[in-house]
Amino acid sequence: MSPELPxxxxxxxxxxxxxxxxxxxxxxxxxxxxxxxWGMVYFDEHSGWAHQQVYMPYHSxxxxxxxxxxxxxxxxxxxxxxxxxxxxxxxxxxxxxxVPGQNPPLVGSDWVLEAEPGRVIRIVLNxxxxxxxxxxxxxxxxxxxxxxxxxxxxxxxxxxxxRQNKEWGHNAPEVKPEMVKAVRDKIKDRSTPFxxxxxxxxxxxx
Length: 206
Fold this sequence. Notes:
CATH class of the largest domain: Mainly Alpha
CATH architecture of the largest domain: Orthogonal Bundle
Helix content: 40-55%
Strand content: under 5%
CATH topology of the largest domain: Cytochrome Bc1 Complex, Chain D, domain 2
Distance between the termini: 116 Å
Largest sheet: 2 strands, antiparallel
Strand order of the largest sheet: 1-2
Structural class: mainly alpha
Number of domains: 2
Radius of gyration: 36 Å
Mean pLDDT: 83
């Protein structure tokens, strides 16, 4: 027969219970945070009320698409970015009016606004030398070639920006990268700038 142990003070009748604090096991804390992380990921991917790419204040992917810029607008904005570099703005100015006697204006220029952009693409690719008449005024500056600096996409975009700039009163057709590539391939063996006289002999559609 085993000896009887003295009754614990905590178990004695009328004794006030006491809470005993013990540290939580480390594995339980790790499990808690793993479950919390999994729950967040699951809710984000399977909540059912929102697309993964949609966050407040939007509620659906359809609503978000409405506010996305169109492809045409994106090309125009890209062209403005190219134009605003020293590439174009240094000579033709931010307002497109050029420098009197030196660099011709782009605003209202027949060279810029031709329905078919073959000539103006050649000007950007290989440059231009010699006196030129624009809107009845003479200019004798020279334009450097950009074929080794700008890609077909950049040239198409900047020409689209210039030709469709409504602030300048322009609404000419868009220039596509494939148009630039076609002209680039035709003049790939040429290393000298064009002259206005040469360009006037080339059909705009060529």
